[in-house]
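ok so heres the complex, two chains, lmk if somethin looks off
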Amino acid sequence: MSRLPGAVPEWLIARARFRSTFLVILGCIQVPYGIALLLSQHSTVPVLWWPGALHQVDGVTVTAWGWVRVAVGVFVLGTCWRKADRLPFAASVMLNFVWASLAIQRGFDPPHEPGAWGPGVIYLGISVGVLMISAWPDPVLLDEVQVPGDLG
Amino acid sequence: MASAAAHQSGLPWDTLIISAISAALGVLALINASKAKQQQAATEGHAANIQAFDQAARFYRETHERQGEQVQQLVEENTRLAAQNATLTRQLNRFERLVAELKIVLPDEWQGNGG
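and the predicted structre for the whole thing:
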């Protein structure tokens, strides 16, 4: 493969084909988002985004949701390198679907909050995307098969 | 029944439905991941077989070529030895004719074969 000036490094292209790379990205998104949820409850200025502006989501405090986000993100980052990566995929699908459902519900149930169902749709897309990618097999890498001895 | 019990305990229906769908999606993700790993293992096995077959075919082709070269060398050696043999046969015949003409008596073991 020729390397063009300014092109994406080959190691990044090679690494991008693996499921674990997607899980790393997912974990790296979830942890900061959880931290943002936690910080939103200690903000001294008005928070306008959902659900940072609230104190509870479906009866659970935003702080608790923030810790759940951080915990799931850390779990995904900690287990994505394993060959058996079923649990981080399942946890990500479930958490993002719950989050999407709560956001969409908040947007349509009274009192309506139009700013909630938009992010909900995004999280629903993330959940469906994670579900699809969980079915993708990793690329096959084979070491050179060694023929025992020189039979000649 | 579990849903009814949970509803009676105070959980709203929407929470139950969301939880149930989320759990179903989680199970689906587990199944997806398992099938992906099985498919990957099958593909790896298939690719390993193909690679081993290719390597064996290359090995036997190289062996065939090497043995062909050895056969060619043996043929050339055989031709050279046959020419030497013909030369020696002619020289031996001339020598025997000369011995017969000069009436020289040679010992029985003169050829060195004990015969």
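quick notes: The interface with chain A takes residues 14-15, 18-19, 21-23, 25-30, 32-37, 39-40, 43-44, 47-48, 51-52, 55-56, 59, 62-63, 66-67 of chain B (CB under 8 Å). thats all i got rn
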